[in-house]
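Researcher: Next sequence.
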Amino acid sequence: MNASRRQVAPIAVTMGDVCGIGPEIIAKLFRGAQAADCMVIGDVGVMRRAVRITGGGLVVAEIDAPQAVAEVPPNALPVLQAQALSTDLLGAPFGTIDARAGRAAARCIEQAVALARCGAVSAIVTAPVHKEALAAAGVAFPGHTEMLQSLAANPGDMPPLVRMMLANGELRTVLVTIHQSLRSAIDAVTFDAVLDTLRIAQRAAISWGQAAPRIAVAGLNPHAGEGGLFGDEEITIIAPAIAAARAEGIDARGPYAPDTVFMRARHAPGHPGEFDIVVAMTHDHGLIPVKYLGVEHGVNVTLGLPFARTSPDHGTAFDIAGTGLADASSLAAAVAMARGLASHRLHTDAPPGA
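Model: Next structure:
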């Protein structure tokens, strides 16, 4: 038995879109000790190709169950062959939108969630998928977050409330709205949506060991509405939700001007941040500041699921797929965060939220 592999349920890494860089960054990840407790859910042939593209030196070992990871020798990449994948998956060209790739990516996610829900894996780390490939395959979700939310519920049950968080060592941002047009996102900024986001962010922080997080809330409008001159959502929706959250014991503050709150919250050398989490109303408001600090360090976390799930802070990078040039740093950061979140879940009785 490989003594470096943990005697706990492994972390499942899903293969992602085979036309993108997902398999390649996974192959690079497994060349280091940071993947000792991981396994891949994907296609054995695709992963063998990825190992060749990235320089060889690894044996792709097909396993039949997650617990078999403990028996895999050093310098091996354990792969649980995903079910019902296209037999011609290797024929999907690099750098293209292909329904076969979208369908395979979805199958890997479905299998990972099934294993996480029964405790066979301790966490899920998802390699990048392409939203257009998912749509081409007839997958009725615009991205990982919505798919995971649906899969986390039993048939007929209401899915859990979830939120997207993007995090690195300097900022943690949680979003009220995600993958929808900006026009519809503005309508989706409601009292309940903001309050639910604050509750989910609070529970998540508790689950990763932060008992009293300081949560800043970014406004929707320029200068947070400037007292109603540039929009009244801050007055009629966001501030009342903050007040309701504070009445529940949540240390929520704001709303603050979106163009300055991230600078105030950023934890940097010589600049301890004023806040632990920033809640932003829309996708780009919240994600641009974190991505600007470097996608190689960013991690996407789905809050509110009954299991830990993270992913790298970048997409499929079709422009360099198949070249072996992709950087695995963000994937390594996602694995490290997933491991930490899973460990907190294992050693605490905290409610779901990480």
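Model: The chain has eleven helices and twelve strands. Confidence is low (pLDDT under 50) at residues 1-6, 349-354.
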